[in-house]
Amino acid sequence: MILLMTTAPPSNAPWFLGRKLPPLGLAYVGAALEKSGYKVEILDNYLLKKPIDEVKQIVAKLEPEIVGITCGSATYQRCLETARAVKEIRPTCKVVVGGWHASYAPDSLLEHSEIDYVVMGEGEQAMTQLAGLITKGADYEGASGVPGVGYMRNGNLLKNTPQVITDLDAVPFPARHLLPMNLYGRRIEFLKVEPVDIMSITRGCPYNCAYCDIEKLWGKKCRIFSPPRVVDEVKHLAEKFGSKGVYFISDNFTIRKNETEDFCDLMKKEKLDVEWVCDTRADLLSKDLLVKMKSAGCKTIWFGVESGSPRVIDIINKGISKEQTLKAFKLCREAGIQVACSFMIGIPGETVKDMEESLRFAKQLDPDWCGFNIYVAYPGSILYEEILEKHLYDRVEDFLFYVKTEDFDFESLMKIQRRLLTSWNHSPKRILRKIRRDGITSVAKAAVSSARHARF
């Protein structure tokens, strides 16, 4: 049998305060393995936070031939700890690590003897092929023929070039039945209905944002699940898990206008009682498309605005002007679609004046929801390499850099973030809007929660 797992998050990292979402990537791999006839279990320890001794007990009970661990750069040390625990209990078990960090920095994993293989890029095909070799005892000879697999042989590091999946419809629905769905929040502030589940319908991105690391995992070409396949999965969620809402977490939901319109037409044809939210870019919308999206159940669109400073927009290669963003927000309002957005602060080259310009732009945009997030550099992006080369950081956690320049460091950024959020959230206009939208009880609870996080 095969055990797939996430690791518990670091205990004191500031970015682990948000909602816990099902690990879709792992669930996709689990579904592909089940389709090939393997018995699969998933342990979402990012959610459950079981101590390492309990993880050992689970491994001892299940006696897996293969343990697959998903690893992000923020969970690197937890991944190594987990791999060592698996080998301690099951020395013959093969440990395979996939996910973001395995794709960006495979060498840092393979230098540890407790990790037998890494999977770079998409995991469904690579993991299935590798599992076939391992279960037949032929992985030593056959691993060289599996795209996306890396491993050590006789002291040599070998990495096979990843191969993208051209027909995404061939990938089965994520194996959500292997996850403790009742333990996830399954709600989102952008929708009033519950439960809400997440879906991913695109892979790859043709854009070149300097802060983004997605290209090394999915590639530059944007591939999509077909509209019929997407609608079928929405129906599956509604029928099997009672979903009333869906958040499409793909970055560029509307990148292909014709397919987006086909999806909307199918949603209306099927008369699905499901509301939805999506993420997209401000330059990928039109009036007629938004009207169709609204009629098909779209309630909110989230945008990564990132900055109100044209100079910073140029630094990060966003490629979207303030005028385009203003127009997109206006079109959404005219179509009756709510707007959510986020800004980043702490980009190398940014100044405190630029951050204040972002606040002014947020107030000009006047979205229904707005956040200001501190930039932390992850491997795989253009900015990461610049920060590493110029030593623009003063704190490192594994492979994550907290940016430091002449204008700010992480500590000062946290103060600036609180000031920006306070200025945004405490506007009488926005307080009244929140009360009308969410009710006074919800607003009061959110204020208490915000105060607790600020003290943290």
Keywords:
single chain, about 450 residues, alpha/beta, Rossmann fold, TIM Barrel, 19 helices, 18 strands
Question: What can you tell me about this protein's structure?
Answer:
The protein has helices at 24-35, 45-48, 52-62, 76-89, 100-104, 106-110, 124-135, 139-142, 215-218, 227-241, 257-270, 287-295, 310-315, 322-335, 352-365, 382-390, 410-425, 428-438, 440-455, and strands spanning 2-6, 40-44, 66-70, 94-98, 117-119, 149-153, 156-159, 196-199, 202-203, 223-224, 245-248, 275-279, 298-306, 338-345, 369-374, 376-377, 393-397, 400-403. The chain is an alpha/beta fold. It contains 19 helices and 18 strands. It has a seven-stranded mixed β-sheet, with helices on both faces. Strands 8-11-12-13-14-15 form a six-stranded parallel β-sheet. The protein has two domains: 2-159, Rossmann fold; 186-425, Alpha-Beta Barrel (TIM Barrel), CATH 3.20.20.
In a nutshell, what does this entry contain?
By secondary structure, this protein is α/β, with parallel strands linked by helices. It has helices at 24-35, 45-48, 52-62, 76-89, 100-104, 106-110, 124-135, 139-142, 215-218, 227-241, 257-270, 287-295, 310-315, 322-335, 352-365, 382-390, 410-425, 428-438, 440-455, and strands at residues 2-6, 40-44, 66-70, 94-98, 117-119, 149-153, 156-159, 196-199, 202-203, 223-224, 245-248, 275-279, 298-306, 338-345, 369-374, 376-377, 393-397, 400-403.
**Strand segment count:** 18
Oligomerization state = single chain
Question: Low-confidence spans: pLDDT under 50, at least 5 residues?
Answer: 448-456
**What is the spatial order of strands in the main beta sheet?**
2-1-3-4-5-6-7
Shape verdict: globular
Count of distinct structural domains: 2
Q: Tally the helices: what do you get?
A: 19
Per CATH, the superfamily of the largest domain is: Aldolase class I
Q: How widely separated are the two ends? A: 42 Å
Instruction: Estimate what percentage of residues fall within beta strands.
Output: 15-25%
User: Percent helix among the residues?
Assistant: 40-55%
What is the radius of gyration computed over CA atoms, rounded to a whole number of angstroms?
22 Å
The main pleated sheet reads as: 7 strands, mixed
Given helix and strand content, the structural type is alpha/beta
The name of the CATH topology of the largest domain is TIM Barrel
CATH architecture of the largest domain: Alpha-Beta Barrel
- Averaging pLDDT over every residue, what do you get? 92
CATH class of the largest domain: Alpha Beta
